[in-house]
Input
Amino acid sequence: MPRALTWSAELDEKLNHLVNNKKMTIINAAKFLGVSRSFIHRRCQMLQRETNFRSCSVERERAGFEPLATGHPISWLAIQIQRPVHLPPNENSYHAQAA
Output
């Protein structure tokens, strides 16, 4: 029968240390901490989500964890980011005349 487990912030720190600093796999971290691989996988995902969420913009934080809806202003802003445009040379350009 599974034993009751009281998970704490200290164990989250230990898991973070094992996976990130010691480069331990989640299988080995689960064995070390005495829990299942699936539990460790869920905790690692949660810790990663919290870490990534802290680096988001305020607007994205307000939008929450769910995927953004179609046409959301954050999505439109990402689409409208200006990038350099590379046009192929035409027959009247300097490069075409030099060739």
Remarks:
- The mean pLDDT is 78.
- Residues 51 and 75 are 21 Å apart (CA to CA).
